[in-house]
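Table 4 source record.
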Amino acid sequence: MLPFNFFESNAQNRRNFIRNTGWVLGGTALLNLPGFSIAQNRTNQFEIYTVQNIIDLIIKETKLSAFKETVDTIKFGSPDQIVTGIVSTMFPTVAVIEQAIKLKANFIIAHEPTFYSATDNLAKQEINTMIQKKKAFLEKNGIVIWRFHDFSHFMQPDMISLGVKKKMNWQTYQKKGDSLLEIPSITLEQLIGQLKSNLSIQHVRTMGDLQQKCSIIALLPGAWGEQAHINMIEKNNPDVLVIGELVEWETAEYLRDARQMGSKTALIVLGHSVSEEPGMELFVEWLSPKLPGLPITHIASGDPFLWI
């Protein structure tokens, strides 16, 4: 999905986002925390972190300044909560929350929305019983959710795109920016097979001749939107556009007409969640050394569809 610049702001969430609390470290002050004792290894005391401590650390380590407007805010819970474990995922589904509870992890870092809209703007959703049920479930189990979207995409390199490239062994094939690659030539059918195998995807949608050769790849995982898709094709004329999702009456119809009039650009639609999940898996690898002693687990939210 595109950075927040393309969406509306949320003033209250923004205030939560910039809220700054001090580090809470292992030491005598922690003895006053109810229900907590200081775990100790041979030489060092483990640090105790609040949600806000971890958010501040992540933002610092991205080497980016805080955005004036962003969707990367706490979606549910308190920034002052002591963290027992972290789960990273694409979508914080009920199934993912249930697995986090089993792991005794009370902080979920998700790439995409919690409450079914781009900005999680609850005021716009007048009647939505699922939101109330989900909030009650999170409250009952003491779960905090923070979104890690804009920061991940503005990192250099883009963490989500890099996660896909690592899964595909494409790190050395960079041609232009984060999105344009030049790989050894293979057929569209072979490329689809590699994507399905390496990204653990059962089904994709495609448009093009399965035997056409593909070398120049435009990689736009997630939901970039039709204008980004079309601009990429117009400016770079790739052999294939590999995306997460599309609006069928926009990108798909543009490409259908373009191919009818001589364009050779093929299309592969992976699915939104599965196309960006490798980035949130890579996030665990990136974050774990920065929080030694704290359990951090990736749980894939998976493809929501049953293909029949």
